Amino acid sequence: MSCDCSNTPSNQPPSPSERRGVMLKLGIGLMGIGGAIASIPLIGYAITPALKKYKNSWIDLGGTADFPEGETRLGKFTNPNASPTDGASAEQAVWVRSYKPAQFQVFAVNCAHLGCPVKWFQQSKLFMCPCHGGVYYEDGSHASGPPPRGLFEYKWKIENGRLLIDAGRLPGLEQTV
Amino acid sequence: MFRNIKMVGTKMIGGLLGWTESRSGAIGFVQPILMHRVPRDAKWWYVFGSASLMFFSIQVVTGILLATMYAPSAAEAYSSLQYIDQQVPFGWMLRALHAWSSNAMILMVVIHMSQVFLHASFKFPRELMWMVGVLLLFCTLALAFTGQIMRWDQDAYWGLGIGAAIVDRVPMLGNQMRNVMLGGPYIGGATLSRFFALHVFVLPGLTIALIGAHMALILKNGISEMPKPGMVVDPKTYVVEYEERIKKNGVPFMPDAAQHDMVFCGLMLIIVGVLAAYLGPVGPNGIPNPTIIDANPRPDYAFLWIFTAMALMPPQIETAVLLIAPPIVVMLLLGLPLISNRGERAPSRRPGAVLAYVLIATALGTLTWLGVVSAWSPVMDAWTSLPTPVKYLVGRTPLEMQGALVMQHSQCRNCHSLGGEGGLRGPNLDNVGSRKSWDQLVRQVQQGGGNMPAYGKNLSSAETTAVVAFMTTLRNAGAPESTIPGAMERQSSPDQAPTSVASEAGK
Ligand code: FES
After folding, report:
1. Which fold has domain A58-82+90-166?
2. Is A109 in the pocket of ligand 1 (CB under 6 A)?
3. Are B128 and B253 part of one and the same domain?
4. ipTM for the assembly
């Protein structure tokens, strides 16, 4: 395949540049520069999600009448970063608690422990987590189990009778919502 | 005439072989591999590495076939799996084989590793073999985890959610790392695509390369002998002595050692095949739509111990453990042969190592078992699906009957069992009436404590009275009602009792 230099006919002495290894150094240098240039788009492509700034936006959960006072109901929305290949996973859910007229608490369904979906129980007024047994009171505060804090809460506002929340990422302990 | 044809045929085959060999050198390459000498006693103890390799090969073949039908798109993955299961001839069997052979591969890798550790085969000069083996263990587990994501069901979705929540806790860079992992700020199509790339390109490629290295190291250093007490490894003399012994006592791998491997691998293959046909494919369990909050996510077997650790670890140390423990474990595993690369190999002369192994194995086994039971998880539908046992209702007063209803409605049984059914998070209530007095019960219901939420705000005092009245009747045959010594005698009129207790509790 490549030159096996021990077989180089002795009547062809290596050129001066070959002898001093100039060619080899040049080769390494060019490969290095070429490789560095080529890897910029590769790395950039792979870590795009770290470089891109994802912004929150106000998302419509529905009319305020859908969330009657004294009740905690599931609100649904499509994640603002959804792509066509997301399918059903683009759907997102929040728990909306209306405790006074036009006063809400909007909780992430994602447990503050490790993100499993908490479920609301109207009768005992508790949120329970199916994974490690985290339990929260109706106001989202921690009742028992491993979660280190209460449920994550979204900012909300009412516009033209619609309930909007400020959302843009899957909530987590360090960066909440 | 006949003989002529035979002769010509033999000549032609011989010629073809010779031609191929002269152009490729294949036989010259393979022969030393097959004929390399191994210790005579390398028998049944040494079959697990080969079995791991066999199951990996099955994963490659079934994986390629599945990839011809599977749609790696978050919108279609779930339905394509259902299609493979239900419409494609043998599709379900292929998925079953891929799933159960993956479990078998993990099991074989773990047994292989246990044997190498207990026999201290990782000592000089096989340190690198161990390290490459550890990397292969991680590849195997990573393949299993990414494979679980391929099912793209609720377990996959929430498993990713848990992974994201862990990565999110990394200080400073958590958000960026998490976005790289998910391919964006949410779990979605980009997430499945990148895990697909990992599962079918990156990890298998890496695994094949590492298997190659592992095998090359076997040929270079030879298979270790069975350990004998007193036969110590001394790096100065080991190689020469080993080579002498193997020359004298060794046998060629083919067929002396390989026949054991083949018998064991054949047996394992049949067992896994039958298991796969009997148990069928794993999942997919429920459409991965995060608005379906009835999900009850569970990881696959290999990761149940982590699931348990998350449930039982004190929350204060959790983030620290999550971020610090993995690198320490990785370093300890990789560095083991550097910490100890000489001396005795026999387990009987290494009580510390054996003890460490037993402890780790017991801990992992126990955590896995606890994960199967997952007593800490509320049974979310217990309150609607499990009726109150009839024997607890006969002869009860209307108030006590009402209490049984309150208990049912207030989801008490999501965490407490009655008649052997219900959650295991709290104590079972079958005999609670003889363990706790009326006052203690009221206090427990209203104020909670010991990991129970306080129900004070959520139950009216009438409901509390009723449920406590019911609970005091829950006693084993003949067990007396519990009373606190010196406490006020329970009022005969039950609706007074909670008021007095409540005011006392409020002090
Ligand atoms: S994720 Fe909810 S308790 Fe762990």
Report:
1. Rieske Iron-sulfur Protein (2.102.10)
2. no
3. yes
4. 0.89
